[in-house]
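Q: Hi! Curious about what Periplasmic sensor domain-containing protein looks like structurally. Here's the sequence.
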Amino acid sequence: MNRRRRYTGSNPSLRRVLYRAHLGVALVAVFTAGLAVTLVGLLTLRAYADPNQQLIARSISYTVEAAVVFGDAQAAEESLALIASSEEVSSAIVYDRQGQTLASWHRESTGPLHLLEQQLAHWLLSAPTEQPILHDGQKIGSVEVKGSGGSLLRFLRRPLAPSLLALALLSAMTAVSGFGLSKLYLSDAGWALQDIGRLGMSGGLVTVFLGCGGGAWLVRRIGLWRGFALGVVLAGCSALLWYLQAGRWLALSEGLAWTCVLIGSLATGITSVAILTAAIRFAGQGGQAGTDVTAVQSTRDLGEMLASSFLVSLTAQIGYAGGFLTGSALAVLALLLALRLQAGEGRGEWKGRAEEA
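A: Let's find out. The predicted structure is below.
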């Protein structure tokens, strides 16, 4: 009898086996989604990086044309440094008609992340760009430009960047946990697909017209972080109402479902406007606005993709009630982080840290 007990205890139950299998599937789904987003992002950056590098080389060739004509190395080096220092360039070389170096410029990077910047540039840019220098239709020299991958790393090194990215990620995951997961819940509850589609379409209209418009008004009226906090609270309330219905604390009804969707859609619009406003404000305090705003927006897109795959797998383990409750917990985290940033902004940390960066 004792041996039978030991044997039974040494074998995991079917529920535990299924739990481990579903957890593994969830982790693989999250990893796959993150890898896919990363690859797509790198390919997109590479598609834009090469033309941008060619444009920089063309600008340099026009600027140093007169200096190359007269063989003025000092003027060529000054003109070269003027453009290259303000662009995403690691090195630039001007050659004369004989192919000899007339002027050169190299970005000084001795920090611990210099090697990582070089590797990033190697992935984003296929090769250095060479642009001929023309005078009266004839080639009198050339410019060689090598790009740099430091803009993204400079963004990440700024003190407030991680908090901003965390807010973008949490707000997106909160929105998906309430709005996306509710469609599956209603489908399993026996709702017709056309009714669910009508509900989703109405929610999208509320997001665009009322959420985004109201979000812009709230940011102007009560401030950036208070507006964001209000949007997160609404998102958390929507997820909490869904939790009460999924947990059978409240009976599922059409009126309550519409209320949840409208509140969640309004919250999505408000948080989207607020987080992009924060990204633009943050970018305005640095020297690479395009990179900063793109990083925040890409993180928000990543949050939506991760939440879509992760929460569905998690719901398979803990049920719809647990999935909606997870969304409420994410909203609380986003709210606490937003309040922390609001307090830091009141103390002038945004401006002071931006100047330090």
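A: A fun detail: Residues 158-353 form a domain with the Growth Hormone; Chain: A; fold (CATH 1.20.1250.20).
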